[in-house]
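*** Query protein ***
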Amino acid sequence: MTRNDFLEKYAIFLFVLITGSSNLQAESRFITIASTTSTENSGFYEYLLPRFASDFGVDVRVVAVGTGKAIKIAEKGDADVLLVHHKPSEEKFVTEGFGIERYDVMYNDFVIVGPNSDPAGVAGFNSVGNALQRIADSSSIFVSRGDDSGTHKKELSLWQAVGINILEHGGTWYRETGSGMGATLNVAAGMEGYAMTDRSTWLKFSNKANLKILVEGDPMLFNQYGVILVNPSLHSHIKAADGQFFIDWLISEPGQQLINQYRIEGQQAFFANAPIQ
């Protein structure tokens, strides 16, 4: 969506709001997004959402949980917009009628971090499958979120791809925290274990201790984010106009430029890839 297209939509949006909701104060308007801990923990929303609120008078409140929990929140109608990072689950959400349409928004990647001692000897591997196989073969500690988040879902698919039934190793060298990314990284640091994390959370994470990135760059570690309006026909209280307007802004040229400009420690955290018309 080009800047001119977005501005035209914005003019229509304002007209509808003024004529249909003139009795509402601007400060009372808000939408709720069910989203991921990775976008929240990275500081992305602190950077992005005040700009949207300042420009358009709509606050955005974020419920940041794992992708699986975010989807359940949206299915119940407890959010207006869903922004997560597990495309198969997102497509299922739409197919089953809980969402209207899914849009690509941005991407980054996952990395495998581990201790300086690197007991499995995976440093510099550009194949995540080979790295996971080495970790399993050496029974080196691997700390998983184990929380049905997008990161956890991706990790499980990677173990499956190399033919390892990770359930057989639970409680031995494979440990699940049932927690968010920050807590899981803390456990990995304390146990001198390996973990998989999205890069943006890693860049923002302050307690790296003896952990460092050991495996990166495999296309299998690609991490796509998508955004969906919750279906108002299932939940009449969904703020469809404001929610869709936020989505339109996010995937528009101005929104995509803001995404690309966000930096953590001087590094670009997310890469906008909405199909701008």
About this structure: Residues 3-20 form the longest helix (18 residues). The chain has two domains: 3-107+223-272, 109-221.
